[in-house]
Amino acid sequence: MNYYYIDFENVKTAGLKGVDALPSSDTVKIFAKGGSDQMKFNDIKTLMAAKATVTIEDVVTGTKNALDFQLLTDLMIDCVKRAGMSPAPKFVIISADHGYDPAITQMKKRGVNNVYRATTIKDAENGNFAGKEPKQPRAKKTTDDKKEEKPRKKAAPKADTPASDAPVASAAKTEPSKTQKPEQKQPSSRPSRRRVHSRTINKDDKNATETPKK
Known about the structure:
This protein is of the alpha/beta class and 214 residues long. It is built from 8 helices and 5 strands. β4, α4 and β5 (115-118) form a beta-alpha-beta unit. It is elongated, with a radius of gyration of 57 Å.
């Protein structure tokens, strides 16, 4: 025995998908405003052929979110009336409005754990309920964590250097220091013979030594 509360102004006829598969023990309550004309003829035929009990609740309008408040009020009254039943029935709100989720969370805090929300009746039958607690976001990894997770690259083995058959080059010859002055040759104290001879010979000797012409 399950109860479905249709927020018709929110889901329109799409929320009724799956109503034809409900058993006769289930109850479907459609909450719609008096001036609503969104229900198609084929949808009316489907509701009339459903095995489950289907009722249309005329919503009193005039205030904001009037439909939502009346839907929740009807749901809570049913919860109180059916409390203690075994097995406990499911009370499912059919709506895409996330505004119902805080009310469902509050009910769970009070020990009422059989109230859910889904976008269609078929989703509810398959256990695809909306408004589940979101998953906790993963903590951002720090720089140290990234360093630890990063695999270390193995150093490539060094190739063995083949021994060279060539002899080791000798040390470079030491060049003389630029500041060191080259050794200067000392001038000889002995005068050149040719110069002395050329200076001491007089004119007579020069004439005597010349070979007479024939």
